[in-house]
Amino acid sequence: MPKLNLVSHFEAALLFALFSSIVLGIVTKKTDKERLQYGLRCFAYFVGSVFVIGWLMYFGHR
Fold first, then answer.
1. Residue 40 sits in which domain range?
2. pTM of the prediction?
3. Total structural domains in the chain?
């Protein structure tokens, strides 16, 4: 089995966001169009949350 080497936490967060969005889109909506729209929206929310929480942690650490 090939080994997956992630360089940063950001890559791991994006991978988590991608797979979570795919699953959420598939299991929560009925039509393909709704699944795609919801999956993309969830992915955008995940990525936006990563940036917001990252900046909050940056300023909280200073």
1. 14-61
2. 0.84
3. 1
